[in-house]
Amino acid sequence: MSTAHIVLTLLGAALAAFSAGSVFLRAQWVVQPLTEYGVPRSWWPWLGAAKAAGAAGLLAGLFVPVVGVLAGVGLVLYFTGAVVTVVRARSYAHIPFPLVYAAPVAASLVVL
After folding, report:
1. What does the alpha-carbon distance between residue 51 and residue 111 come to, in Å, rounded to a whole number?
2. Could you tell me where the DSSP H helices lie in the chain?
3. Environment class of residue 103 by beta-carbon count within 10 Å: exposed (0-12), middle (13-18) or buried (19+)?
4. pTM for this structure?
């Protein structure tokens, strides 16, 4: 396991955990766009839980690599879905935000 993989995994886990916490705490800069995109409020806790589980899985993957790979793939798919949601809402200026969260996770899978 390389230093780059460890750093990227920790960064990806931190960003996913931060994103999950922002949903759980209903940060205005998160919930306002979710509302504008048409994401039902009933989904928000599940979306936060998915990101939190992904973050935990990435960290566990440092010790059990297959768990990290599965968590990484799950998070990349999650943030790909977020990009699709943003595009469908025609909020093109917001496309970079989910990509910022997905980038270190995808990079950690590449350098594995």
Report:
1. 21
2. 3-24, 28-37, 44-60, 65-88, 96-111
3. middle
4. 0.93
